[in-house]
């Protein structure tokens, strides 16, 4: 297997394994629009990284984390409805990123690669950053699993029981921010949220427990990555969108299979 294909496979599989359980919380807590906002803000991180001449993965990670913290702070103030606030930040950060890129002199940028991913161009260095970030997210999520479930099932009851609900919610948002940042090269900033939503949504229909849904989402994500890379290799289609198409096909298949009674 060529090195570039092996790197792409490892990066895609690593992302799928982590996006399954993390995306389950996105589905349960109806945070899809939050994920979109963070993914749009990733382009601003890319633009600032190029402007300041620093590592792009690091710039995107820091940018997404800062936007996540800002969102939590603004939502806590309750000045605006959450969906309005998310809409403002999503489009503002995406547009600001495009403007900064346009104003950056002597820098030629392949926007398509950042918007829709460039999985087959992942290098050994990129792979190291990705797997390192995903491992951190996986470890933290396993440590916070019970607390995350508690605030998801009944937030007020969790607060009465003494759990630091605000801190746990912030931790979840930061984990999503890290995954979005490291997944940029797999499916691009416009399609990242799809891997956090489609496999968990497909697994939810047939799962009986939260753990079954998280595991099923990871399995479906892995199948989507394998199918998307195969489609890209044989049909010469873009890898990121091909993965999302396969995930959507698996979702439709899950809907067509009758639920167990």
From TrEMBL:
- Compartments, record wording: Cell membrane
| Membrane topology, from the record | Multi-pass membrane protein
Annotated membrane-spanning segments are 6-28, 40-73, 85-103, 115-145, 165-192, 239-257
Keywords (A to Z) from UniProt = Cell membrane, Ion transport, Membrane, Transmembrane, Transmembrane helix, Transport, Zinc, Zinc transport
Provide the primary localization. membrane
Q: Which SUPFAM superfamilies match?
A: ABC transporter involved in vitamin B12 uptake, BtuC (SSF81345)
Answer whether the UniProt record assigns the keyword Membrane to this protein. yes
Q: Which family does it belong to?
A: Belongs to the ABC-3 integral membrane protein family.
Q: What's the stated role of this polypeptide?
A: Involved in the high-affinity zinc uptake transport system.
- Which NCBIfam families does this one have? PRK09543.1
Tell me what this protein is called: High-affinity zinc uptake system membrane protein ZnuB
What organism, scientifically named, is this protein from? Pseudomonas neustonica
Q: Which gene encodes it?
A: znuB
